Input
Amino acid sequence: MSKTPEPVALTVHQASKVLEIGFADGQTFRIPFELMRVCSPSAEVQGHGPGQEVLQTGKRGVSISGVAPIGNYGIQPTFDDGHESGIFTWVYLYELGSKQAELWAQYEARLQAAGVDRDAPMPPKAGSACASH
Output
């Protein structure tokens, strides 16, 4: 994209669990919180390089409890599952909105390949002191 998309409206819809974002080019997207959470641009989700992505599960009911502006280029949502490290740039939100069907299909394919259900709880993090044995 040659020009950064400029947001003109941003609404967090708690009941329907979608982020509605309108851009200056006339595009408006309704991005499900779940999609935002499983596609978070954070290192916790994306890893630190190719092949290090962490498949997110159990996020269907996730909500956004807060949204902080990050400069003039994006937002940092706080999800009610404690995740708050993803910075969503306007470019990334535009991509999430415009490629929702493709991203959902990729997510579902990753779930199937891993043999897990979308609603399965996340496994405990390796080395976590809170992991139950």
